[in-house]
Amino acid sequence: MSTATDFKTLLDNIKIDNAGQISKRYGRITKALNQYFYNLDSKTANSLQVGSYGRFTGIRGISDLDMLYFLPATAWPRFRDRQSYLLQVVKTEIKKT
């Protein structure tokens, strides 16, 4: 075997094989949060994929997706000193997906 063949085999062995599932879940979560916080029907607005998957450095076996979600400024007064309440709201909305 050549070095190129060995390297291709390595890449094939570590390639993420559930990217479609991760993408669908990301879209559903983002859409649910957008509907709740912005009354918006978007699967991509106001969020970013971060972590190894978002940087395209994840490998096969990845089991989570790190997301960054941007809350509207209007949510600040409601959740300012109530972080656990914010987490509960987010959890409830995600469970609906």
From TrEMBL:
Domain of life: Bacteria
InterPro entries: NT_2-5OAS_ClassI-CCAase, NT_sf
Molecular function GO terms recorded: nucleotidyltransferase activity
UniProt keyword list: Antiviral defense, Transferase
GO biological process: defense response to virus
Entry keyword annotation includes Transferase: yes
Record has Metal-binding as a keyword: no
CDD domains the record matches: NT_2-5OAS_ClassI-CCAase (cd05400)
Alphabetical list of Pfam families matching this protein: SMODS
Protein name (Swiss-Prot/TrEMBL): Nucleotidyltransferase
Native species: Salmonella enterica
Biological classification of the source: Bacteria, Pseudomonadati, Pseudomonadota, Gammaproteobacteria, Enterobacterales
